[in-house]
Specification:
The protein is mainly alpha-helical. It has helices at 7-18, 26-46, 55-78, 84-107, 113-135, 148-165, 189-218, and strands spanning 180-182, 185-187. The chain has a single domain, classed as Up-down Bundle (Four Helix Bundle (Hemerythrin (Met), subunit A)), CATH 1.20.120.1760. Helices cover 69% and strands 3% of the residues. The radius of gyration is 18 Å and the shape is globular.
Amino acid sequence: MVLEGYRARVAPYLERLARPWLGWAPNRLSWLAFGLTVAGAAVAALVRWTTPLLFLAVAVLIVLGGTFDVLDGEVARRTGRSSVRGDFLDHVLDRYADVILVVGIAVSGYANPIVAFLALASLLLTSYMGTQAQAVGQGRLYAGLLSRADRLVVLALAAFLEFDWSLPWPWAPGAPWSRFHVGGIAFTVIDVAFVYFVIAGQWTAFARARRVYRGLREA
């Protein structure tokens, strides 16, 4: 998934979506996005002691958090309130939101702790390579197989499938730890998403690092 490549196509829709929020300060929207994502992580953690039906709320909160995370920048640009300070705050809140969300989902009991840890490390490494490019004067990198938009969509979809498969549908595979078996190891939908994060995240981090390095050599 490379959703960043569709940014230009969805720009007209973002403009319409941003209109009701033009009176808000961009930083307030950043905090709102962060709060919604943290709420999603908290609800995911509660699944461990309640019911997997809560994964529907997790999916909705992730989508809402991701939407407002996009809107803060759109509102800042359209109202002329873009600033280095606001951009820095947005990136800080995004990193904390990434960590809290993965930890919350890992606590749910529907994720292998080792796979969740490797996924988190890959996500942070991917983000670091993007910002490091900016630090050496090559601009912020968003390209790759696992941008932030990609991983939020994947996590929201995985959470929705966990909710859907917890219902007594004919296609529901049953107990959470007996859904996918590879070499005798069982995986949940969330585990599969995290494995994808590890593979795509490492690939994206390497591709970004190579691109920055080559740019420095040419300079």
